[in-house]
Amino acid sequence: MSSLGQFRCDADYLSPGWLALKEAAIQRGEGLCEYCGLPLGEASHLHHRWYPRDSPDGLLNLMILHPDCHTAIHFGKSIPAKAGSLARQGDKGKGNSTGWQSYIRHAA
Fold first, then answer.
1. Are 41 and 33 in contact (CB under 8 A)?
2. Buried b (16+ CB within 10 A) or exposed e, 45-54
3. What is the Cα–Cα distance from 41 to 53, expressed in whole angstroms?
4. Domain layout of the chain by residue ranges
5. Amino acid 3: pLDDT
6. How confident is the prediction for the chain on average, in pLDDT?
7. Which among 44, 49, 38 has a CA at the least distance from the CA of 99?
8. CB within 10 Å: which end of the chain, N or C, has fewer?
9. How far apart are the C-alpha atoms of 83 and 95, rounded to whole Å?
10. pTM of the shown model
11. Per residue in 52-93, pLDDT tens?
12. In the chain, what's the furthest Cα-to-Cα distance?
């Protein structure tokens, strides 16, 4: 899986490395939000499930989301979600959960 460095500030999120990871996440998710399972629209966010301390960001700790799903993860807002999606399984979009590990195994 791709990893290019650690991305932490606004300037990083405009870098070619971040944009490459975002595109790879869109491809991995087949154009669907990796949280709610519904199709992505024009706008999408790349969310850190966790921040690795001693290793680079990569597709294992990043997920592609709708902007509203990103808000839901950070502020606990409820969202519509497809049956079987991580959100419907109770995944909070944080950490290396069992649901995320299973999703990654099947998406690889």
1. no
2. bbbebeeeee
3. 32
4. 3-107
5. 43
6. 88
7. 49
8. C
9. 21
10. 0.86
11. 888 888 899 999 999 999 999 999 888 999 999 999 999 999
12. 36
